[in-house]
Design a protein that fits this description.
CATH architecture of the largest domain: 2-Layer Sandwich
CATH superfamily of the largest domain: lpxc deacetylase, domain 2
Largest sheet: 8 strands, mixed
Strand content: 25-35%
CATH topology of the largest domain: lpxc deacetylase, domain 1
Shape: globular
Structural class: alpha+beta
Number of helices: 6
Number of domains: 2
Number of strands: 20
Helix content: 10-25%
Length: 308
C-alpha cells in the first residue's frame, strides 16, 4: 500500500507463542488504531494493576538492548523482544496499532518476521484520515564503538546497508544493501531468522536469556557447523536478519525514515544509540508529510554484496 495516508490493520489479529528469552507463552491481539496514535504495547495481564500497562513503541522507552530490544514505561512495566514485530509493521507500512499481550515477551514465532507479515496480509491494511509523516535525514550522524559503526546519511529514498563479520566459517563477512520497501522486505528480508552460538547458551541461560531457544526458532551454530537440519534460507541469511533487526529498531523513531542507514558490525545497542543521537541533533532531520509515489514499485530491488 503506497500512498500518503496513515494506516492500520483492517481487523484484529490473534496469535500466541513462546518467548525466545523467557521461554514463556504469551497471547497477542493486534488491534486497529486511530491516526496519530502510533504503535502501543498494552500488557493485558496487568490491566488490574495500579501500574500503567501501556508502553509506547518509541526510542525513549528503550530500557535494554541486551540480546533484544526491550521497552518499558515510567512504572517499569516492560515488554521485550519487540524488534521482529516492529520490523514487520515497518515493512508493511503500518503506522498505528495496539499490541495487547498477556506476558512480558513477544512470541518469537519462527525467529523471523514472516509469520507476522503473513498474518497482516491475511487481514489487510486500511487507510486512515490523516497524512503519513516521515523523518527526512538532512545531515550525517555517525556513532562509532570499537570496530562497530552506525551512520545516518541523507538520501531521497529509504536505504539500509549492513555488514557483519564473524570468524565462523558459515558466516564470515556478509553485506547487503537494499531500498526498504514493502515488497523488498516481504520477499527478501522478512524470512531471515535469528541466529546464535551453542557456545553462548550456558552463559545466556544463567542470566535468564535464551530459555526458549530451539531449532524451530533459531539458527544454532556449533563451533564448525549449523545444527538446523534444513540449513539456511539463503547464504546471506545472517546479514539479512541483522537488516531485519535494523528495520525494527529504527521503527522506534515513530516514523518511517527517508535516508540511508549504514551499519557495520552493529546490533540493537548501536541502532538505539544512533537513533538517540539523531534526535539530539535537531538540525540533522525534519518531519515531512507523505509524498506521492515515494516508493516506485518498478525500482524496488535488493542489491547484495555491496560494501558498506
Amino acid at each position: 500500500m503506497l500512498n500518503n495516508f496513515q494506516t492500520t490493520i483492517a481487523n484484529e489479529i490473534r496469535f500466541k507463542g513462546k518467548g525466545i528469552h523467557t521461554g514463556l507463552e504469551a497471547n497477542v491481539i493486534l488491534k486497529p488504531s486511530e491516526s496519530n496514535t502510533g504503535i502501543v504495547f498494552v500488557r493485558s495481564d496487568l490491566s488490574n494493576s495500579k501500574k500503567k500497562n501501556r508502553i509506547e513503541a518509541i526510542a525513549p522507552n528503550v530500557s535494554s538492548t541486551y540480546f533484544c530490544t526491550e521497552l518499558s514505561n515510567s512504572d517499569g512495566v516492560s515488554v521485550l523482544t519487540v524488534e521482529h514485530l516492529m520490523a514487520a509493521l515497518a515493512g508493511a507500512r503500518i503506522d498505528n496499532i495496539e499490541v495487547c499481550i498477556d506476558g512480558a515477551e513477544v512470541p518469537i514465532m519462527d525467529g523471523s518476521s514472516i509469520k507476522f507479515i503473513e498474518l497482516i496480509d491475511k487481514t489487510g491494511i486500511v487507510n486512515l484520515d490523516k497524512q503519513s509523516k516521515f523523518i527526512k535525514i538532512l545531515k550525517p550522524i555517525e556513532i562509532v564503538k570499537d570496530e562497530s559503526v552506525a551512520r545516518f546519511m541523507p538520501s531521497d529514498k529509504s536505504i539500509i546497508e549492513a555488514e557483519i563479520n564473524f570468524e565462523h566459517k558459515e558466516i564470515g563477512r556478509q553485506n547487503i544493501a537494499f531500498e526498504f520497501t514493502p515488497k523488498v522486505f516481504r520477499d527478501q528480508i522478512a524470512s531471515a531468522r535469528t541466529f546464535g552460538f551453542l557456545s553462548q547458551a550456558e552463559k545466556l541461560n544463567s542470566v535468564g536469556y535464551g530459555l526458549g531457544v530451539n531449532l524451530s526458532n533459531t539458527i544454532v551454530l556449533t563451533e564448525k557447523n549449523i545444527m538446523n537440519y534444513e540449513g539456511l534460507n539463503s547464504k546471506d541469511e545472517f546479514v539479512k536478519h541483522k537488516a531485519l533487526d535494523i528495520c525494527g529498531d529504527l521503527m522506534l523513531s515513530g516514523y518511517n525514515i527517508i535516508g540511508k542507514y549504514q551499519s557495520v558490525r552493529g546490533g540493537h545497542c548501536l541502532n538505539h544509540k544512533a537513533l538517540t543521537s539523531l534526535f539530539k541533533e535537531k538540525d540533522s532531520w525534519k518531519i515531512v508529510d507523505g509524498i506521492d509515489n515515494f516508493f516506485d514499485m518498478e525500482t524496488e530491488k535488493l542489491i547484495s554484496n555491496t560494501k558498506v
